[in-house]
Amino acid sequence: MKHLMTVLRLLFLSLFIFLMIKGKPMLWFGVYAFSLLMALVFGRVYCGAICPMNTLMIPIDWFSKKLNIQKRKIPSWLQSGKFAIFALFGSIITLFLAQRVLQQRLPLLPAWIALAVIITLFFPPVVFHNLICPFGVLQKQFGKRPRYSTRIIKEKCIGCKLCEEVCPSNAIVVQEENKKAIVDTALCLQCANCQQVCPKDAIHYMK
Ligand code: SF4
Ligand code: SF4
């Protein structure tokens, strides 16, 4: 599963780079729009398997942890979560104005990728995924109640919290009261990290 995800991510990253080189960013926006419909059924698979920002954030996160330069404390102005909504509308308005008024196509996607990489150098991935990413705002809404998602088989869970430790978006949490993990589907990137570490095979992508 781990290798399949890595191959998928690299394939989509290659497609993204190809489209950017060919000057066809709108085709990538088409992929994104389609992924929102997919999120209604399959959850946020775009975030976990397709998004080029996430694909690049994975090695950057590893590198940053090795260098021990990531800060744990989230800046207070980000904590409300409103910045991501501002980023979404700000990006749409900026793109629209640049196109209409200046007749310029801004490199919005590469700019967000650069920002994602820089932020992940200094903060854990959860900061970008949950509090900054404008693309995640819509994915959260469309992927709230998908038909298929990462789910827990409660009887198997022993509450070891290994899944919590590898989740890039704080979507999986072991409840204090019953020591069982639960997944917040809106936050879940469907990345399968938790499935790979669960010692009891308690986590599955299912109905
Ligand atoms: S890793 Fe598996 S067993 Fe451990 S808390 Fe998570 S779901 Fe439960
Ligand atoms: S809950 Fe599991 S699949 Fe969902 S984002 Fe966290 S680690 Fe990935």
Brief characterization of the structure:
By secondary structure, this protein is mainly alpha-helical. It is 58% helix and 7% strand.
Q: Helical percent range?
A: 55-70%
Largest sheet: 2 strands, antiparallel
Average of per-residue pLDDT values? 94
* Total of DSSP H or I helical runs spanning 4+ residues: 10
Q: Given the helix and strand composition, which structural class is it?
A: mainly alpha
Spatially, the strands of the biggest sheet line up as 1-4
Could you list the spans in which at least 5 consecutive residues all have pLDDT below 50? none
Number of strands: 4
Protein described:
By secondary structure, the protein is mostly helical. The chain folds into two domains: 2-142, no CATH class; 149-206, 2-Layer Sandwich (Alpha-Beta Plaits). Helix content is 58%, strand content 7%. Strands 1-4 form a two-stranded antiparallel ribbon. The protein has a two-stranded antiparallel ribbon with strand order 2-3. The protein is globular and about 60 Å long. The structure holds iron/sulfur cluster (2 copies).
